[in-house]
Amino acid sequence: MSPRRIGVGVVLAGVLAGCQAANTPEFLTRAERNLEVSRGQLQRELDQRKDSLGLMGASLTGCSLERRQVYELDAEQESALGQAVAARQLATLGLEPLPATDPVAHYVDQVGQYLALVAAAVSNSSGPERAGRPERALNNRPWPHAGYQFRVLPLEEARATGGPGGIVMISTGFLRLLESEEELAAVLAHEVAHVQRGHGVEAIKAAMCHYEARQESSASLRAFGQRIKLQRETAASGSPLAQERVPGELLRGAAEEAVNLYREGFLEDFELEADRITVRILMGAGYDAHAFSRLIQRSSLETPAKHPWRRMHPPPRARLAVVGERITALGPTQVRPPPDAVEQRKKRFLDAMGALPALMAEPQSSQPPP
What we know:
The protein is mainly alpha-helical.
């Protein structure tokens, strides 16, 4: 019997015992009704995630690397797509990032930019951290056309995403849950790893390939794929057509699909690959990678509904296993930072977080947040 069923059985036993003692059949009926509603809500959430990840998995499995190649984006096109995806996410949430001049946003950007540089420096040695999928053969994405952009969202849900073109977003709600710069670095490094390995780009390419093959894509998405294919076929001939850029409306069409894919997180293989690479980035940057394990352990105590970052990732036990394995493997080659350096960074983090805006109400949205 699964732990969940055991847990439900214990709850029901307790309710039954209490009701029999109090002789209140009406209370029992109400409790059973509430339990059924809760169980139904949980099942709907699980089904939604399964459907979303099932679509992504089918796309990646059904569209080989060769078939996806015609949808490849160069750095400029990826940057344009990333901007469109970010704009769509923000429009769905009904908010704007904190301005770059905000002290919290400035601090997060400083940490993020440093990690991005370290990630680029250690990228050639990240082979052992790559997932057991065909995508492991792909090179890392080039440095983003517009550089990495680290944005802080005034959102009280704990969220962090790394999108095409190097746009990394983290919510103020997530920052409030962190306890040190080491933990902040772990979250940002994880998202940088997603960008570097092109997880979002590959998912979008696979979705376009999948939909076009089934003739279910929108006209704009089909045109997008056709234009990319035509550019690749004419590039070798030096034709001026090969230099044409993808129109903005076509990028917006692809962005719509991307938001759907980003809503529930990446495939488990991609998430665990990013976790492995995160350890290498943290150690290369001089951070204590054990803080990443502590953050995962602490987030496991939160319910997925209250901690979207946890819901969008594999089970904590799987994450802790791969993180622990990489720490053990890389530990002998990396010097663990001295405690006074960790404390100094923690003080810097707490000072910066003192400028966080006051708790605010969640923005109203007619759609689920990405």
